[in-house]
């Protein structure tokens, strides 16, 4: 099968970067990214690439060299479906906020809309690729919708989950650990579809890194990969608490266990709890699926990962309160970092939101600075927690554009995100302008304790 054009429905954190790399690596193929969000598409089309809707190192230069050559952003979903041989679905699959499965299951309404639109508009046979993270057996539902769509064309459904992490998305896409393609390898049409998708990746990925599996294994593997990664973070976070009461140092423990090649050294950084749009959502979904197959022990096992994450966030906020003599009312506390990790402007499910909320409930005056997250987004995040009115949030929480201003007169500073620039600040200048005693709560263990103690700071470091 010769593929001339592909499209992706959903121009978000996955659709945008993924399709940019496809366009860059497959110059003979036309790539269209479509979205119902006109504002987002306008931003993708902005001549000034510093205004792209997503901040991701290396992304703007790829967009600059491919956009309007073989990479196009548009709101015309119908046209993109009709023109394309392969259609990727990369829409959001958030935790359901209503009805059966509320707060647990993945909300598949956006995926279902895509399936119905493909059934309605397709004017030739199509390969449909699930890029979104989906519950195991979702392909069955997509197939059912398409088979009942009265379309005269045939559709082959593949699962091709995306494993990129934000902040390193471009590197992850260019040099993936593996590419997973799930499909029906027992039928001729299934085999052809798998090969067509594989051929796209072969433009830059070694064949031995492309794994083909059945579709259910592929769908499930994505949830399981995220669950295992999140489990490592929760595991080391439990140990951080134990270190704090035993005078062990979690960094040393991480290094010691990580040197065991069976354990491996990655994903062992203690923190204020994992954030991001994926880990919590995907584990909740795994728990929901296990329960729905009547596997309560499996569900409870994975639920503990979330339980520990919430505990770690609360524990960090409570540590700030207890060290500040058990009251933070009317004290200025500066949160450095709002993004859920460095090198991204994404703050979805960031621990900063929950720590800020906890401290605001104690009537603290919160100041915050993040190099990439906008003021508008920070207020939207705190409003979404629904703990107080929008007016109260704007009175109690101040967003600064300058880190030194954010820290001026503060009683305490908390490091929430591991941005590199925080290590390079003039900490003497910050200390001089703070209320005394001046506290630092390093939730990412990135600062040099000895230097700061010498300046005069009182320091708490996670896991130390
Ligand atoms: P996102 O919210 O950034 O983007 C999704 C986009 O889809 C939005 O812009 C939305 O407007 C659009 N959309 C929704 N319904 C649509 C429709 N019917 N037609 C056209 N556009 C529509 O989400 P994301 O972070 O890119 O995640 C997308 C999927 O990828 C999710 O399933 C997520 O779990 C998965 N995933 C995300 C990451 C990540 O790091 N963010 C990594 C791997 C996998
Ligand atoms: C994750 C998966 O890594 C990726 O494969 C998947 O496609 C999407 O979900 P992402 O959420 O973008 O990626 O970032 P990740 O690097 O996994 O970090 C998630 C959270 O865990 C962040 O808040 C990060 O700070 C935290 N984390 C990560 C730790 O606290 N300690 C660690 O050692 C690693």
Structural features, described:
The chain is α/β, with parallel strands linked by helices and 464 residues long. Helices cover 44% and strands 13% of the residues. It contains 18 helices and 14 strands. The chain has helices at 15-25, 38-44, 59-66, 77-83, 109-121, 138-147, 169-174, 188-201, 215-246, 250-258, 279-292, 296-323, 351-361, 375-384, 390-396, 403-407, 427-432, 449-455; strands at 5-9, 30-34, 71-74, 86-89, 126-130, 155-159, 179-182, 210-213, 332-336, 365-369, 397-399, 412-415, 439-442, 458-461. The strands form three sheets. It has a six-stranded parallel beta sheet, sandwiched between helices. A six-stranded parallel beta sheet has the order 11-10-9-12-13-14, sandwiched between helices. Strand 5, helix 6 (138-147) and strand 6 (155-159) form a beta-alpha-beta unit. Helix 12 (296-323) packs across helix 13. The longest helix has 32 residues, at 215-246. The radius of gyration is 24 Å and the shape is globular. It starts with a strand and ends with a strand. The model has no long low-confidence stretch (mean pLDDT 97). The site of uridine-5'-diphosphate-xylopyranose has 19 residues, from helix 9.
């Amino acid at each position: 099968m010769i593929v001339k054009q592909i499209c992706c429905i959903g121009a978000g954190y996955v659709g945008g970067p993924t399709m940019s790399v496809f366009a860059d690596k497959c110059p003979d193929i036309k790539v269209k990214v479509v979205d119902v969000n006109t504002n987002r598409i306008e931003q993708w089309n902005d001549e000034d690439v510093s205004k792209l809707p997503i901040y991701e190192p290396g992304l703007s230069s790829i967009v600059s060299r491919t956009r309007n050559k073989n990479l196009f952003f548009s709101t015309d979903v119908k046209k993109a479906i009709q023109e394309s041989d392969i259609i990727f679905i990369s829409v959001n699959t958030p935790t359901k906020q209503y009805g059966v499965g509320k707060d647990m299951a993945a909300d598949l309404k956006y995926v279902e809309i895509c399936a119905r639109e493909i059934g309605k508009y397709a004017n030739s046979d199509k390969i449909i690729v699930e890029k979104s993270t989906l519950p195991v057996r979702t392909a069955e539902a997509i197939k059912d919708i398409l088979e009942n769509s009265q379309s005269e064309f045939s559709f082959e459904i593949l699962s091709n989950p995306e494993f990129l992490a934000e902040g390193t998305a471009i590197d992850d896409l260019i040099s993936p650990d593996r590419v997973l393609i799930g499909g029906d390898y027992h039928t001729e049409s299934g085999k052809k579809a798998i090969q067509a998708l594989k051929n796209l990746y072969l433009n830059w990925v070694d064949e031995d890194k492309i794994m083909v599996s059945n579709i259910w294994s592929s769908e499930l593997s994505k949830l399981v990969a995220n669950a295992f990664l999140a489990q490592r973070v929760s595991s080391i976070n439990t140990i951080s608490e134990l270190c704090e009461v035993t005078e062990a140092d979690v960094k040393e423990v991480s290094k010691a266990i990580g040197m065991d090649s069976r354990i491996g050294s990655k994903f062992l950084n203690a923190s204020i709890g994992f954030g991001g749009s994926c880990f919590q959502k995907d584990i909740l979904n795994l728990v929901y699926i296990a329960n729905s197959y009547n596997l309560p022990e499996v569900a409870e096992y994975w639920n503990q990962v979330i339980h520990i994450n919430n505990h770690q966030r609360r524990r960090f906020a409570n540590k700030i309160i207890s060290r500040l003599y058990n009251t933070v009312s009317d004290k200025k506390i500066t949160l450095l970092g709002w993004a859920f990790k460095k090198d991204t402007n994404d703050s979805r499910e960031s621990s900063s939101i929950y720590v800020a909320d906890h401290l605001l409930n104690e009537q603290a005056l919160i100041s915050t600075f993040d190099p990439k997250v906008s003021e508008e987004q920070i207020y939207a995040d705190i409003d979404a927690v629904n703990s107080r009115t929008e007016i109260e949030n704007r009175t109690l929480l101040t967003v600064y554009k300058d880190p030194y201003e954010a820290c001026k007169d503060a009683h305490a500073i908390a490091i929430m995100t591991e941005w590199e620039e925080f290590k390079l600040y003039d900490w003497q200048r910050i200390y001089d302008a703070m209320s005394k005693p001046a506290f630092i709560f390093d939730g990412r263990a990135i600062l040099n304790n000895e230097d700061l103690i010498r300046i005069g700071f009182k320091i708490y470091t996670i896991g130390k």
